[in-house]
Description:
The protein is mainly α. The protein is built from 20 helices and four strands. It is globular and about 60 Å long.
Amino acid sequence: MSPVAEGPTSTGRPLVWLLAGYPLWWALGLGQFAYWVFAVPMAVELMRRHRTVGLRVPPAFWLWALFLLWSLLGLAMVPLEMAGTVPGSGGYGGALLRITNYLVLTVLLLYVGNLTERELPTRAVVSALTVLGLVTIAGGYLGMFAPRFEFTAPLEYLLPGGLAADPFMQTLIHPASAQVMDIFGYDSARPKAPWEYTNVWGYMISLLLVWSAVALLTPGRFPLLARWGVAAAMALSVVPIVHSLNRALWAGLALSLLYAGYVAVRRGRVVPVALCSLVIVLALAVLAVSPLADVVRARADNPHSDDGRAATNAASVTAADLSPVLGWGTTREALGSSDSIAIGPSPDCPGCGQHVIGNAGQLWMTLIASGWVGTALFLGFFAATAWRYRSAVTIAGRGALLTVLLLFWYMFFYVALMSPLAVTMVAVALLWRDEEPLLRRRTARTGGGSR
């Protein structure tokens, strides 16, 4: 059977349905809870495989397993009050939700890694991620042109009224196209569909553009018309990316291009790198004289949330210093604001003060929830993965490696739970699953005959 005709067997379809069908799950109100739903058949398959052929785990999995244990032990810290925070602002709800998400991600990691190439072809995973990327680009345009678009999802009708009306739950289950925020002194629409926040949209579009590039660069596996369509969509993604006002996203895309250039030069492909660099310079010149440049300049002149982020990030470090081993089990709300301890929510300013410590990035959230030890375990697992597969030779392998590496950039700005970390886990699983051919190619390139 030709590579184009290959598809996942029934065993591998849950992952493809989860990723490519995510817009439907978003419209139904499931959002990130779709990962929970699809984790059920994945877990059933893992149990069946454990009884028959046994389960494999990725290298350095002990670090991730210890992190899960640390997260569970951290529940003992949830009832304790932390100095400088609003009393009672922690709670088991957020802690249990976070731990459940980590457990679901573990199921996803083991599921993808234990399936064979025949059961779940890498091409099928790349295709599903590419489709999800196209939908995210479309969601960006929806957020720009219909910023007030929203609707009541079916799940909202099924939940108890109090739960469905909870602001945090609304963010997770209520489909909306954009976050409308006052950054320039007037309302600005920042795209987020089909994700919960515009920052999640930014993180996801960055990762999914990597996988769209993998689809374009993989020889002979995707139809020519599909390649042109994906290439056009990637070019058009510049507009919602700029209008998202996500500066970390802009820098992350630049880092991704630098990584791609480094890999190409290392392989001796200097001419293609030079041509691509010329195209990028010309594209930037065109953007510089377009209205998009005004948006970038205005964003640079309006830091908006920088002071608040700096204050909550510093509070996360303080929290980890106060409880370095287990952390505090979950996030807390800071007393006051960066300007005064007396500033807090009021009828005239419900968003003033008492910002959540740890909500400004995965690093900061892990620090307050799991302390320095838990954070070291969390980051250690992904660092060990990146180091082990640093010489990935396939196009999909390099895309997976870049996906893992981007975690170490975005962790300062964006919370990775749930979808960005899910894509990262899929990348880890693909690297681990394809380890043997990767190592064989590495041996052949270095001329070694033993391992």
